[in-house]
Structures are given as structure tokens and as C-alpha cells.
Amino acid sequence: MKLAAFALCTAALGAAIPVAAMAQTSVNIADQGPVVTLNVTESVEAAPDVVNVGTGVETRAPTAKQAMADNAQQMTALIAALSKAGIAKKDIQTSGVRLNAQFDYSPRNPDGTQAPPKFIGYEASNQLSVTLRDVKKVGDLLDRMVEAGATTISGPNFAIDDPAPLLVQARGAALKSARAQADFYAQAAGYRAARLLTISESNSGGNPPMPMMVRSFKADAAASTPIEPGQVSASVTLTVQYALEK
After folding, report:
1. Which of 40, 174, 232, 244 allows an S-S link to 191, with CB 3.0 to 4.6 Å?
2. Whether the model pTM is above 0.70
3. What are 72-99's pLDDT values in tens digits?
């Protein structure tokens, strides 16, 4: 009977063992030496091969219907001119359509006080974002836009269509620079070596930080518009950590 009781007790304990075995223990062993954190940015420049230009048409009329109708007619002519110039349909995208009532706030009463604003009609606007893939012809294409009826132009914004190869170069240069800095700190602080722990990256690919500038055209286009593409850069910023070892 005692043996039977012992067996039952053992069985009861055995049933509880898997529950205890489910508990997990996590052990983290920290580096004993100091850790150096570096932020390194490297850039690679190249000539741009694509440019984005904003263009559009603004029209005014006494009624909203007439303003939109006039705008549609001029915008259709502008799109046709872009297509005739060799711009692919996929590279022409509507970026905004707007219709606003227009008021004249300048009238004053005979006694010099401000008169209520005077309604003068409606203004319709239709804007396009156009990608040009022949940088050398940008000036000529801008002039064609104006000749076709464009009343606004914004940009141009130059870029690299495929910045991946430039980013590879910038990434390699940034990592090499980080390694050199880490080795310097290790030697200067009396350590034998620097061991890489972590790497994180952020990048900017082939597009310069350029503000948009809008120009309105009220007269015929003059001589061919001069455009200088210059250089654009692709940059990589690495945040790396090295452990200094004795």
C-alpha cells in the first residue's frame, strides 16, 4: 500500500513537471568594454537623367461653367502638345484641379471706409506633373508648354531615375569611413580592436532638396529658356556601433 501511495504521489508530481518546464529564462550578456556610436554620411554625385516639371492652365470667366469649359479646352491643347513633343502618357499626371470664386476687395465707400467685396467671376485651374526623360531638351519643352497655352510652370526638379548604383557607392564609402573612425577611437583609447555590433541606414536617392518655384506667363514665350541641370547626389547615412576590445 505504501508503494502504491508513493506511485500516485510521483504521478501527481509528474503531471506538474511540464507546466514548470514552460517557463523561459532570457540571459543577455552585455559587452564589457565601451561602445562607440557613429553617425556617418557619404554622398555620390552624378548628372541627372530625369526631370519633373509642373505645368498647368488657369482661366477666368463670369460663370463657373464657362471658366471650367475654357480651362478644359486649353488643357486639352496643352496635353496634345506634350504628347506631340514625345512625352509618354504615363509621364503626364494631373496633380490638381481647382475652381474658386474671385472677389475684388479694393472698392471703398465715399466716406473712405472699406466697401463689401465685389464678386468678379470664377477662376479654374488644372495642373499637371510632367516627367521629362531627355534633360537636354527641357528648355525647349518649357517653351512648347507656354506656346500651347500653359500659364504656370513650376520646377524643374532634377533627379536620377535609378539611384541604386549611386547608393551602393555611398553605402560602401560610409561603412569604410565608419570603420576608420572606430579603429582610430580604439587605438587612441588604448584598445586592441573595434568589433562591429549594429548598423542602421537611411538614404536619399538622387533627388536634391530644391524648393518649387512657380512662374506665371502672361506674354508670349521669348527665346529658348536656358536650363542648367548641374549635378544631383545620392546620400547614405549610417548609424553604427562598435565595441572596443582589449
Report:
1. 244
2. no
3. 999 999 999 999 999 999 999 999 999 9
